[in-house]
Structures are given as C-alpha cells and as structure tokens.
Amino acid sequence: xxxxxxxxxxxxxxxxxxxxxxxxxxxxxxxxxxxxxxxxxxxxxxxxxxxxxxxxxxxxxxxxxxxxxxxxxxxxxxxxxxxxxxxxxxxxxxxxxxxxxxxxxxxxxxxxxxxxxxxxxxxxxxxxxxxxxxxxxxxxxxxxxxxxxxxxxxxxxxxxxxxxxxxxxxxxxxxxxxxxxxxxxxxxxxxxxxxxxxxxxxxxxxxxxxxxxxxxxxxxxxxxxxxxxxxxxxxxxxxxxxxxxxxxxxxxxxxxxxxxxxxxxxxxxxxxxxxxxxxxxxxxxxxxxxxxxxxxxxxxxxxxxxxxxxxxxxxxxxxxxxxxxxxxxxxxxxxxxxxxxxxxxxxxxxxxxxxxxxxxxxxxxxxxxxxx
Length: 372
Description:
The protein has helices at about 1-55, 75-130, 145-200, 205-235, 245-260, 280-300, 330-335, 340-350; strands at about 265-270, 305-310, 315-320, 355-360, 360-370. It is α+β, with helices and mostly antiparallel strands. It has a five-stranded mixed β-sheet with strand order 1-2-3-5-4, with helices on one face. Helix 1 packs antiparallel against helix 2.
C-alpha cells in the first residue's frame, strides 16, 4: 500500500509539472511569434520612413520655387524633424524587440530542456511501475479532472504540434498582409505621390504629359482598391454574421459558381435552417472557401457535390469532386501552409473531425459541434 501511495504521489507531481511547463512553453512561444510579427512591421515602417524623409530633406531644393515669396523651408524642416523622431522611437522599439526575441528563444530552449527531463521522468515512472508489479496503477480520479488528464497526455505530442502549426500559419498570414501593404500599396502610393509632384511642376508647361501622368495615377489607385478589397475579404471583413448557415453556404456556392462556370456544383441542404455561433459559421465558410480554392487550382474537376446535414447537435459538411484526387504522400509533399492543412487546424480548434478520401476524385468530410 505504501508503494502505491508513493508512486501515485510521484505521478501526480510529474503530471502537474508537465502541465505547468507546457502552459509556460505555450505562452513563451506565442509571445515569440507576436514579437517577430511586430518586428517585421517595424522594419517595414522604418524602411518607409527612411525613404519618406528624403522627400522633406533640405537637399530637395528642386521642389522649391526661388521666385515664390512663401518660405516653405521651415515646414519641410519640421516634417523632417518629426520623421526623425519617429524613426528614433521605432529604432529603440526594434532594438528592444530584438533583445526580447533573443531572451524568448533562450527561455523556450530552457523550457524544452525541462520538458524533456519531465517526459523522461514519466517514462521512468512507467518502468518503475512495471518493475514493482504496479502497472495498473493510475492517478486517483479526485486528483485530476478527466478533461485535464486528456489535455496533458496529448499536449507534448498532438497539442504542441497543432499549436506550432497554428502560430506559424498566423505569422505567415500577417507577413503576407504586411508584404502586400508594403509592395503593392505603400510603394504605389509613394510612386503616385512622386508622379503628382511631377504633375505639379509641369502642368502649365506640358499639360499633355501631365494628363498622361494623372491617368497613370488613377489606374494605380484603382488597382490598389482591388488589392485592398482582396485583403479585406481574406480578413472576413465582408462576412455577414446575421445570415443563417444555409444562406451563407448558398450565397458562397452561387458566388463561386459565377466565377467558375466551368465547374458544375450540385448542393443539398434543403432543411438546414440553424444559425450556429458566429465563429462556427465563419469557420465553415472559410473551410468551404479553402476546399473550393483547392479544387479550382489543383483538382481539374468539372463537377462538385456539396452536402450539409445537421443531427444531434453536430454539423457535417461533405464536398466531393470528380478531379484527379490528392497525390500520394500529400502530407509530406504539400506546403505546411496549404489549404488542407489549414482546414485541419481549424477543425482541431473546433474540436471536430476531418476525413479525406480518394475515390474517383477527392471527398472532404468535416464534422463539428454546432454549439460547443
């Protein structure tokens, strides 16, 4: 009896340490990813400010009218000084973030070392139990809640892997948006500003050239609006959370069908009139969007069947296409940020299930709880 109590106490202490350090590890990993994202944003902003500063530099004398009674030098100096101050603030923040990232990396390595030792200790406890003939012993139910025990058992492997994937994808998306803002929006605005400055100088002496330049600015502005619209859509800005799920899916199918008339879409969800919580409706919409994006880009299908059913508090989405199917060893060959892998992480966060099958095409079946 004494052996059983001692072993159980050791097991409980080991599990508590495992849970504690897993939680700390997750916090530090999240903080690291957040700091890296902010550092990326600061570097982009600093690059923008350095380029902008030259516009207001005292060396930009070509923009001044020597015959004008208005002295613009003071305003330009003031703007340049303001930019210099902002650069200084951002540089200090960047240096602090770089130090913080270095520290977080050290913290994470230290925690990983401790977790490794705790996991080895858990394995040693198991070996000791077998040696003492106590292999059936477990932690008392009163000591650990069942849900917590499941979480702790799965965290070092499954939850850690999912958490890392989700953080990586989140950082990837932020980097993508930041890059679009930098290369496709900010650069174009800077270019337009330069062209407008040219127009201001030549509008009287060369009106035809000025008109051509203004037309270029208008075209660039329209293209930027399209890019901004696409970014807003990717961030679910236009998603209508007041629709029930039937209307959300039906509107999506009609819209995507209009854009891709070469693919016939049949759908079945006549009696689906429920309205799950916002995050589940939005998640189902995103899953559908990624499935169809995959179909259009890779499957070569010309016919898709969509079926959505609800029973016993669970929502089941099935999408079947007649394309070429997923390639062999898809998980090994596909990018870590691919659509199917993103869907898996969304389903994981919703505590649902996903099943992929290849049979004269690809079938994706997703099941999630409606209200949990």
